[in-house]
Amino acid sequence: MYISETTVEVRYAETDQMGVVYHANYIIWCEIGRTQIVKDLGFNYAKLEEDGFLSPVMDFSIQYKAAMRYGQTATVRTWIEEHTKLRTTYGYEILHEDGTVAVTAKSQHILVKKENFRPVALKKIDAAWDAKYAEVAKIQS
Question: Which protein family is named in the record (predicted)?
Answer without folding.
Answer: Belongs to the 4-hydroxybenzoyl-CoA thioesterase family.
